[in-house]
Protein 1
Amino acid sequence: MRSTGPTYNDAHTNQVYWSGDRGKTWKKMEWPLASKVITACGLANGNAWITDKNANIFYSSDYGQNWLKVGQVQVKENAHIQQIYFNHTAQNGFLTLTTGALYRTKDLGKTWKVLPTPASQKKYDKVHKDEKESIEKIQRLGRQYLIKKQDQVFVTDTSQINWRRLPDIQHFEIDATNTTMYAIKKDGTTTCYAPGLRLLWDFKQKVREGVVALEVQNDHLFILTDKFLYKVGKDLYQKNSLVLQDRLISKPYLTVDYQGDLLGFDYGGRDILMKDKKSGKWYRHMESDFNLRGLLKYQGRLLVSSDALPQPEFYAVDLDLKQLTRFQLPAQMIDHEKNPITRFKIYSGSNGCLGQKERAL
């Protein structure tokens, strides 16, 4: 919910509490619901909605102090509502199911109509056969709807649902008035659009980490990653680290002994760590501009690799200067005449943290 409204903090009792002072104090509410709360949506004008495990929709017009059941959608067994969303005027609302179904309401949640989705219109191809059908996000920008699913973004006009993919955009967030869209493109740059996807401005600086959350406040986009908090606006681009230099660092996922020093890194991180010989503690020796994928020694050099696709890029590490220099590995790493292949097997099965099951073909 927003700064005022209900929250639920006890999954066992499903008790709901209400705050009118931005979370400083809370009071217990009389809640007309026995089933588990699933998701909620709150607007600045006091309208709010909550859905439960049985796909009931509850509505409040007074910032969540009083609730009334207004509707229900029929769902299949083992399916439930994943999210509920209303635009700033509450004229249009949406809910998505874990099955990937999309519904729209125009009467505050009393009745719901099924809408086509990119998947039902054959506009979306699964990344893998077992992926979830659910839609991650739906929002409105002017007279258009936007959907995010598996890092793919689709747009359609509100008058006629005909989804088309926006191939360059990976993440988006729309302001509270549904008039400005902020987006992160596939290359990590940030852009801003008016209704009709008219470009307002863009920044060439890149967000290289995985995005955890987005929020629009006061004409700025706030981007939370696992390492940084970004604040981006028309004439502003700020990047603040979430990691303190003196924090205790645990043993990294991968380590290598190089010239008497023990180095390491965590897969997908950016820190190249070094172990202090006296204290035995790990500390951050240097930081890369990209997510690390590998750490290896080659012909006396220390190399790191990026997670760039389709092929990783390699860089030579200078520990003294704390610099990374692009390095090109030879096309063939192994001399097969001196080291011929004597045995080759193909396996099928799985090899994961819960065990190993495989068989030779």
Protein 2
Amino acid sequence: MLFRSLYASVLDLFLDRRLWFVLLAGLAGSALALGLLFPMPRQVMAFAALTLVGQWLIELITGCQGGLISRCLPESRHSTAAGWMNAGRMGGGALASTLLLALLTWLPARSLSPVVLCLVFLPALPIFLLPAALARTPEPRPTPPASGPAGADAPSAPWVRRGAFWATLRGSASWPVVLLVLSPVGSGALVAYLPALATDYHATPATLALVSGALNALFTVSGSLFAGYLCTRRDPFLVYIGGGVVSAVISGLMAAAPLYPLIFALGAPAYYFIAGFVYAAFAAAVLRLLAAASSATGGSPAFLYTFFICLSNMAIAVVGFIDGRMHHRFGPRGVLLSDAVLNLGGAVLSLALLGRVRRHIRERTRSRPS
């Protein structure tokens, strides 16, 4: 996962970021659309390979989004932008999935290829409404060396200079920051298992389709926008940790309640809401780190954003693996209790690290060049 952050730094080296955004969206949509043209299951490997390529390109789009927000908006608007970004990513994904599943009842999968391309590519085009001057790679901060040949004191991007890659990383990701990002608080890993729990709760297919489709989109968007609003008024890290605690409470209440369809119909949307909330709060917290890192080093925002997202995805993968094992051994209550305990444990660890993380941000911000 961490290798994604290495090639994501390319997004800050050349080309207009708007071009990167549209180019990556077009390539990702083309890969996913092309995969649908292969007959299943005879050519499942080709379908899987193109799907992986499409997902890989979408991950790069996420890094491009983080870089654009970091460079194009004032810090006071980062949290609001994080809420809208996550609302589009999660809510848009849920709506697109619902639309495609509905179309599959009337059309063969091959016929949906142009639809997938349009769903991924067309929403990226409004990025050209952004002024070109804001989307360009910014002028690097002048950091002349103490000595060197003539011309060596010319400013150059700090993530390109020899040895500055690790300096940029060390300057933005101290060990308390890394541990907080790696903690399981606010992982939202249960989102991937909620559809599988529908059978345990005896939910009907219609209930599952409603909860996983329209309600998923509605509640994740609402949670994302509310987190973006709250992070403009409170510390994003504290909002993120608080959201993780609330997700643990929701999981615990679902585990204690009887396995009735009504419990699933109420609990799953509540978890979708808090998942959108914590993901948006985490994005706002990462943007706060990027603002501090930019003050100190001017480092590559796409690289740094993707680096922190990859660390978080590692935590989500670990929590998801543990949740899956607990579901296999102890059933639905096992996975729910596991998710609750891991989120609470992560909240305790994160609160213990929060003071050091805040100190790290203050130190980086004070080092802003005059």
